[in-house]
């Protein structure tokens, strides 16, 4: 049996999966998350500021030390949208290598989509699905059936990016919410055709947070999140509620991580528009995502 640490440096948060692997199966896993906002200001400036770089290196250090204390045999470390966009991403990558000895790979949108597919498909073997991964900086949609990807696309629209670009008031005003909806609609309209009959599977922080809120969960419980169903009607009610509250009030919503309170409105709008685009009344939530997908990708090599 081998044990691996997978670290995903996202636009909003840095996540760690420690997985025990036997042959080609994950037999035990634990996950950890630190909100690090690698993408802060990147959409506008294409630069990661020094404070953000140091904050993210510190999170990597914490996760490396935790992983080593658990006796991992190796690390898989990757970054996504914010590191793709930032002109100075190499500063962070060089520092992670120099100070921590960790090699950070930057995934392109298609590879990020593939990792999500590999993670989810192990749980929904062969089923016709559309995987919806709404992240901080980007959204991936992956159409899959019979264990293979039929079509995938990555959009530069995520919860952090849309919040920074459009929301300037607290609480947000109607025009700001409409602007987000309009941009998402226009982006999806230009997307490659997906099968509308397929089940939508939501992965990532926005999808799992919406499930947490619906279930009024005080603490994240993977067993309750995985395969839970979230309905469009409830999402639209949540958007209305979020938009009526100031950020400090949203932080008190049961099931909502306070560090996600400022971006949940934009994230929920993206999810709502995806469901409407594909004429769906709900999506199912997967606790398996690109972290597990990175493990399966490694094992297939």
Automatic annotation (TrEMBL):
Gene3D superfamilies: 3.30.420.40, Exopolyphosphatase. Domain 2. Residues 26-300 form the Ppx/GppA phosphatase N-terminal domain. One of its GO terms (molecular function) is pyrophosphatase activity. SUPFAM superfamilies: Actin-like ATPase domain. InterPro entries: ATPase_NBD, GppA/Ppx_hydrolase, Ppx_GppA_N. It comes from the Bacteria. Pfam families: Ppx-GppA (PF02541). Belongs to the GppA/Ppx family. This is Ppx/GppA phosphatase. It comes from Alkalibaculum bacchi.
